[in-house]
Structures are given as structure tokens and as C-alpha cells.
Amino acid sequence: SGPDWVPLKQDWNKRWCTLPANYIEDFAGRIDAFETRESDVFVVTFMKSGTTWMQELAWLLLNDLDFEGAKSSYPFHRSPFLEYSLINPVNGMDSVAMCNQIQGNTRLIKSHLPAQLLPRQIWKEGRKIIYVARNPKDVLVSSYHQMKGLAYANGSWDEFVDQFVTDKIIYSSFWAHIIDFYRMRNEENVFFVTYEDMSRDLENVVKRLSLFLDCKDLSVKEMEKLLKHLSFKNIKQSKFGNPTGFIKTVRKTTEDFEFMRRGIVGSFKDELSLQHQDKIDKWTQSILDEYGLIESDIF
Ligand code: A3P
């Protein structure tokens, strides 16, 4: 086991991002030149921030609440992952080609790439972006379980916390990723929301997102059904909503892994030592100070 990518630091518009070593050679050009369509919607996040939850919600809004469709295929198939083949080369799937093959309805495309590495046309043409941010300690805990469970990493908490705060985890720097979108939160084509907002008041997020996506107003009954469908309990037990088995097969791992793990805000409180929490808080503060922000402004 162990990581199957070599972390690489790239400098692009004075932004750093840790990515697989073959990124520039095999992907950067294709992703940068990716042809977007007017109706495209991108769901962009740092990993483990509630991406799949948001994909399910946005897909349902964009597809006239097609619950039957949502219950009969994986979120990945309805809403492809732009750079999937980059982080999961074992699967042999060309994810950029897969996005291109989609015909018909609005494409809902997922990406964990930071702003500066997303397809250039998104910015040039003002394509719609839904950005979900989540607090760093819960992202770290969720990522740790995913990395271990899918055999990408096998180190200790100590090592993982250290890698997280020194930008050695894929897609980091975590804060640069969020701050770029936080600063764009009032742009017309950007919908900035947090996992914490979704946990606190999902109905409100649904209403705001529905407006952003130009979808029809939902009746009281439709809203009830949608909120029930999106609940952690429901998604965890649904065959296609919960991609645990699918991911384990693709990763060829038998490790103990659960994609729908806890689904709460603050799981770090009983999973991270106080020492680790303190290390992350100090790191957060040192970065946010530079931007004149405080963590509670965002979450
Ligand atoms: P935890 O590991 O903290 O439980 P992503 O989709 O970006 O990989 O994010 C995965 C995280 O979102 C996991 O967090 C997962 O449990 C949580 N999640 C997925 N669906 C959810 C839902 N319906 N409600 C709340 N949390 C959800």
C-alpha cells in the first residue's frame, strides 16, 4: 500500500497545489483546454467537504427531482469527476473523455482542482460554480479515514496532521483552495456554501441553490421529500447513493472503509487529540491572519 502518486508542487499564478507527478504531462493541458458548455454547472470542493452530498442535491434540482433516476445510478455516473483518472489511474477510465461524452441535460461536473487549475473557459465564460467548503479539522479527519481505508496512505495521525498543515496532501493547500472561492462568493456565477450551512439548515440552502440554478420553486411536499432523500441516514442505506462498495471495488481494497462515515459537524472533537487540534488551529490562524479573515467568518 502507500500513496500511488508522488506529491508535486506547482507554482501557477503564485498558487501552490500538490498533485500527482504526471499531472503536467498528462492532464494539465487537457483540463485547461476542456470545452465547457453554456449550461454546465461545476461542483468544486477540497476533498471530503460534502461534495457527494451537494452533487446529489444539485443533480436532483437540475433534473426536476428525478428521485427514481437518483436511486438507480451512482452519483459519479450522473455527475462525472473531471480529473478522476488523475487520482485513480488504477481504474483506467478517461474521465475528461467521459465528461465530453455526456449529451443532453445540464452537465454537473465535479472537481477538486483549485481555482487556478480549473478549465480556463469556466472563468472566461462565467460558467456556474457551486463551491462547498468545510472546516479543516473535519476535512482532515474525514480525509485520514479515506486515505487509510482506500490504501492511499498508512501513516499515523501525527504524520497525517503534519502532512496536512505542510500542504503535502493531494490538492492542498487547503486554505488557498477555500480562500480563492470565498473571495469570489459574491460573483454572479459562484454559489459559495459550507458543509456547516448544509448541516445547520439544508432547506435554506436548497432554496438559495434553486434560485442560483434557475430551477422552479418547490412545493412543501417536494421540499419534504427532497430533504428526506438527502438525509445522511437515507443516503447511507441507499444502494446507489452510498458509493462505498463501488469505490472499494475500483480501488481493489478490502480495508475497513465507509464513505458515508459520520456525516456530522465536529467529528474532530472526539477523533483528534487536543494537541493536534491546537496545531491545526495555529496553522489556520497564521494563514487567515494574512488575509484579514477569521475562521468563523467562513463557517
Ligand atoms: P465524514 O467522513 O465526516 O462522515 P465528499 O463527498 O466530499 O468526499 O465528503 C464526504 C463527507 O461528507 C463524509 O464526511 C460523509 O459522511 C459526508 N456526507 C455525505 N453525504 C452526507 C449527507 N447526506 N449528510 C451529511 N454528511 C454527508
From TrEMBL:
Pfam families: Sulfotransfer_1. Residues 39-290 form the Sulfotransferase domain. Keywords: Transferase. InterPro entries: P-loop_NTPase, Sulfotransferase_dom. The keyword Acetylation does not apply. The keyword Transferase applies. One of its GO terms (molecular function) is sulfotransferase activity. Belongs to the sulfotransferase 1 family. This is Sulfotransferase 1 family member D1-like isoform X1. It comes from Drosophila rhopaloa. The lineage of its organism: Eukaryota, Metazoa, Ecdysozoa, Arthropoda, Hexapoda. The gene is LOC108046628.
